[in-house]
Amino acid sequence: MSSLPKSINLIEVGPREGFQFEGIGDPGKISTDSKVKLVDALSETGIRTIQVISFVHPKAVPQVADAEEVAKRFKRKPGVKYTAVYLNDRGLERVWNTGKFDFDAHIYLTASEAFSKRNIKRTLEEEVSAQRKIIEIHKEKKIPITWGGVMAAFGCNLEGDIALNKIIDRMKVVFELGQEYDLNLEKFQLADTMGWANPEQIKRTIEKIKNIWPDLGFGLHLHDTRGTGLANVYAALEMGVTEFDSAIAGLGGCPFAGHRAAAGNVCTEDIVFMCEEMGINTGVDLDKLIECAQLAEDIVGHSLPGKVMKGGNLNKFRTYLF
Amino acid sequence: MSSLPKSINLIEVGPREGFQFEGIGDPGKISTDSKVKLVDALSETGIRTIQVISFVHPKAVPQVADAEEVAKRFKRKPGVKYTAVYLNDRGLERVWNTGKFDFDAHIYLTASEAFSKRNIKRTLEEEVSAQRKIIEIHKEKKIPITWGGVMAAFGCNLEGDIALNKIIDRMKVVFELGQEYDLNLEKFQLADTMGWANPEQIKRTIEKIKNIWPDLGFGLHLHDTRGTGLANVYAALEMGVTEFDSAIAGLGGCPFAGHRAAAGNVCTEDIVFMCEEMGINTGVDLDKLIECAQLAEDIVGHSLPGKVMKGGNLNKFRTYLF
User: Fold this and answer.
1) A303, B308: Cβ pair inside 8 Å?
2) Domains in chain B: ranges and CATH
3) ipTM of this predicted structure
4) Residue A278 in contact with residue A300, Cβ under 8 Å?
5) d(CA A58, CA B304)
6) pLDDT in tens, B101-137
7) Is the CB of residue B311 less than 8 Å away from at least one CB of chain A?
8) Contacts of B279 in chain A (CB under 8 A)
9) d(CA B221, CA B244)
10) What is the pTM of this model?
11) Inter-chain touch A311–B196, beta carbons under 8 Å
12) Which of residues 233 through 292 in chain B touch A, CB cutoff 8 A?
């Protein structure tokens, strides 16, 4: 049998990535009220980290023009970490000014230059210098940076397959930056931004990285674009990975990846179901999570990909018996 | 790294199980023409076995009242095996009389008696005597029976968790029946009829069975009711399982399991995608399969759960590069 971790930590990205995706072409579709309502409901489930919204320029992403208003209105629950996404110093300044957020700060590069150019309009060199600026403003504000990350790590719709060595090279650049600025990068996240990964690739990648950096903590940001999402999570669990980004009801998708009809992030409640059934503690109440998933469907006004919200928690059938 | 099988065999059950499910409450919803069209399209994909339809009494399952007509009209393609489902001697007689089918005959028991009573209206003892009748009529017609099987093997909405020992006990009854009638049961299928299985349970179950019957071939019939379908397939691949039932576009569901909104069988093209990406040969053309999945959506008139049909074959992005 596999030796799986005893517990995992989920980072809920649905309100940020999911709602951002839903609002493409119709920025007002998800009201500020709805955004706040879902964040507040998720706060009651046992989820320990919630990515609330992005602070990027409303000209680039008009659906997050209300970021400050959302920040003002959601209710912080003690014990829950609330984070926001920002891509530059101006974004960080805006997040900082709300006074509502925790920081899980990271240095992030992209494995695919073609994707990087289209997604954040930067070459690798420009990405590195942007990260320098980000590091400097974190230093000024005394916000520790503990995460490194590589996006589009498992393949790219614009560039094709991404060689494992390319991920390693990008990781080395991240660690060099970290050393230069005396950061303590304890953890690393790889993002399968466009849903290319398969379980064997996940294992191969993590095995190689663990050989080079045996003490590094590890997180994954996975999309279920082609149905392999939970199989990839399972393969990662077999390799000892304990942190996953996920989205309630499977909200989301990548607005820049060119497959708008495709599925979004791996689904939070489906991961919780699978883990709890295998004896892995998630700290999350599945029934409350299913209610949040139904709320997410009500908000977006259409069916979402999550399955356990439709199939139901098995504990309910077990309870009948006692 | 895991040592995965070099190739697998998929048994396409969408036209049988999927269309049967879709027609609940509206038996004429899927026209005979549509049924035939999907079977004929699947015949061109490289799939080696297609379960075409059930021959059960039209009073019990009115949506298969046209079984003989479907049998008459679909076109047999050389190299493809076409099977039908029957539950008793009268059903087998009807299948036989069409002259259009191959036989992958099996003895099948149900792990959950509560489910069995509701599903096929039989107690375990009645199931066993029904299997005797089935065996006898196969003997008369000289149709070999090579498969054993247990349904509801991983859990039951009516009975709750199913102990591993219960599966083993049922398997022993099947093998005793086999010995009594001098059958050569080379293969065994377990069905997760109501979508309870998780990857670790799949591994634990197969490991135990392999310890008892090391030379037994093994197949799984999995439902993706709670999102763990492909993770379960991956876990089974890690244990060397090489035969899977699956349904195009993820058609189906179990009409008797009490969760009509839930997802159906594991999705054929998503399995093919995952396997081919991991270097496991399925013998199936993914692009043709995606066309069949789109045809299935057109026929049922609503979105189906399959993901790679929306996310797309990755080879198309790779081809851009050369």
Assistant:
1) no
2) 9-319 (3.20.20.70)
3) 0.94
4) no
5) 35
6) 999 999 999 998 888 888 777 788 888 998 999 999 9
7) yes
8) 200
9) 6
10) 0.95
11) no
12) 233-235, 259, 261-263, 267, 270, 273-274, 277-279
